[in-house]
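Field log, afternoon session.

UNIT: design team B
ACTIVITY: writing a sequence onto a fixed backbone
BACKBONE:
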């Protein structure tokens, strides 16, 4: 009897020991699983943090072929911290490779479905739409800046980025065009005259407005159909102007399309109605034949003075059209 009691006590002790071992092992296993889970969460968090990026600005260049001021832009983009993307619309077939660009930022940045552009025709705004289609494929692109191959930045990247991103609006120079000659009455009723707008081609669009431009299938066809060139003024033309030009409407699509489209869509309250690109149009008194016509002044090397740059900056502008020889680094912040 006494022996049985001893055996039962021994069994209880063994069972208790086994139970303690199992509990300790289970606790260790649970703690290991929790530790692994926590490490996984930390790793995932680091991955997510590394993947989070600020919204980007898409710089959309409409160019003939080469970008003559690419080295200025190269210096500009070095401070961009990858918060930008670049798209170039050149003539069809032109490729930005090591033989045609000295800046790594522009290598292979051409769109491969570019079209031939004719000034004063709807092909100019179709080029803008092509650029936007490509830029919208990147979900991080949040602002879309139209530029020519003769534009340079007057401020550094961080200042430009903060300025453009500081407002939820698009920067679009837009006003009612009350003068005759541009609007074609045949556009009515698709485009009524009270929605006809005019302004600078060099706009900055939000992603919402960029989508509106790309998805437009009503206003753009009207521009394609009714916007045609008519002869240039007497002081510019080399050919004979027809006797009757009353039925020819020189629409100049790039100065009207985006503005008119956004008016049609009742989006004008979402605009800052001015451009961030400086152009000089006061050329009526110029004696230089090359500076007269339907295009803004092209600044020459002799114009490039600190006073000019200071004056333009005083107008709160961020870009200036120049000839390709104006590359003085002293004028670039």
């Amino acid at each position: 009897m006494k022996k049985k009691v001893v055996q039962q006590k021994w069994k209880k002790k063994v069972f208790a020991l086994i139970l303690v071992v199992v509990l300790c092992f289970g606790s260790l296993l649970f703690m290991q699983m929790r530790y692994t889970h926590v490490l996984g969460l930390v790793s995932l968090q680091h991955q997510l943090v590394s993947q989070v990026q600020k919204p980007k600005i898409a710089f959309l260049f409409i160019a003939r072929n080469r970008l003559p001021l690419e080295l200025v832009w190269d210096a500009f983009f070095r401070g961009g911290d990858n918060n930008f993307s670049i798209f170039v619309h050149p003539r069809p077939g032109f490729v930005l490779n090591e033989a045609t660009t000295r800046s790594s930022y522009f290598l292979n940045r051409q769109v491969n479905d570019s079209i031939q552009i004719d000034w004063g025709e709807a092909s100019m705004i179709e080029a803008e739409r092509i650029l936007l289609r490509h830029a919208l494929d990147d979900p991080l692109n949040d602002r879309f800046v139209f530029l020519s191959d003769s534009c340079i930045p007057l401020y550094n990247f961080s200042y430009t980025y903060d300025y453009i991103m500081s407002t939820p609006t698009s920067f679009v120079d837009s006003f009612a065009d009350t003068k005759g000659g541009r609007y074609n009455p045949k556009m009515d009723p698709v485009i009524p005259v009270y929605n006809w707008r005019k302004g600078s081609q060099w706009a900055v669009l939000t992603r919402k407005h960029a989508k509106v431009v790309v998805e437009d299938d009503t206003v753009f066809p009207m521009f394609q159909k009714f916007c045609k060139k008519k002869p240039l003024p007497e002081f510019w033309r080399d050919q004979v102007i027809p006797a009757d030009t009353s039925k020819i409407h020189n629409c100049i699509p790039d100065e009207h399309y985006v503005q008119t489209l956004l008016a049609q869509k009742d989006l004008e309250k979402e605009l800052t109605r001015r451009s961030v690109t400086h152009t000089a149009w006061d050329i009526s008194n110029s004696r230089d034949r090359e500076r007269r016509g339907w295009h803004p002044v092209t600044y020459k090397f002799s114009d490039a003075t600190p006073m000019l740059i200071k004056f333009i900056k005083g107008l709160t502008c961020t870009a200036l059209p120049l000839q390709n020889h104006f590359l003085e680094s002293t004028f670039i912040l």
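LOG NOTE: Confidence is low (pLDDT under 50) at residues 46-50, 234-239, 243-247, 316-333.
NEXT ACTIVITY: expression trials, pending approval
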